[in-house]
What we know:
globular
Amino acid sequence: MPDKNDFGNMISRKFARNLLMGTIGAALSASAGIVVYAVHSYSKRSSLPLVRIKDINGIPIRNVEILAEDGVKLSAWLLDNNSPKMVILLSGRGNDRSNNIKKAEIYLSQGYSVLMPDLRATGQSEGDRISFGWHEKLDLISWYYYLKSLGINYIAAHGHSMGAATICYALEEIKDFKFLVLESCYRHLFEVVQSGLKMFYVPQVAAHLIVPLGQQLIGYMEDKMHPGDFLQLSDAPLLMLGGDSELLVPAETTISLFSMNKARFSKLHLFKGATHVIFSDDYNEEFKEVMTDFIDKVEFSEMQEGDFIPQLTEEAIQADLFTMS
Length: 325
């Protein structure tokens, strides 16, 4: 017969085991809750109110709506600048068309017309969840064919963050963009999720739960969400922008993505001290200078009818020069 001490030890061990299992269970439940909350928060519909304006640079705004090929109703501002050259401006996650007003001002002043869509699940467009560019590519493709139906054949694309990734994914179908501008474009979905977790001091291992759960909830194809693989499908002139102090899309990621391009000519520009912000707002004068310089070179190359072919060099990347491939 066990003595009182043995009995007490048995009780203590059982209590300790139950306490440990309870603690582990609580930790797992809390972790699961955090993961579900993270997926919901990152993919939920943006609820920012749309800015109400009638014109940009004196050009009247016309609101247009179309249906994407999967039936989602999409909304955009169309600014007809009496120009056959059109630029589509796409915003990043959590933003809408109004975040592109200053970019539109630059293009309008350079003689371009502008289309400013709300991607699905933002602004006035329908949709419940964003997909970090994967389903949003259907929006861009639909707007592209809408413009084609209007007789517009000169179409360029400019996107920030998720909007930039959207452009890359659409390159599998759209082969004739006249030029591309990509701001703070992520290199891999899994990688940018890890960076986001790191910013909020959440263990990056949680990405192994968040990404698959997001795939089940939203229906994206994580194994294919590598914008660089799609960027190589286009030889359109390219301007790639980033911040040298970004945490979500670090500068080395932007440089690596830039090195994958097959553009006829391309430029990389990093804004000094910039984080993951809208460069046209926070670095307005520098942004204008970089944009107008790039547009001038695009127009010059068009006049030359492709007689020169830029070369991609490490020296050019470091010196922030135009490059060729």
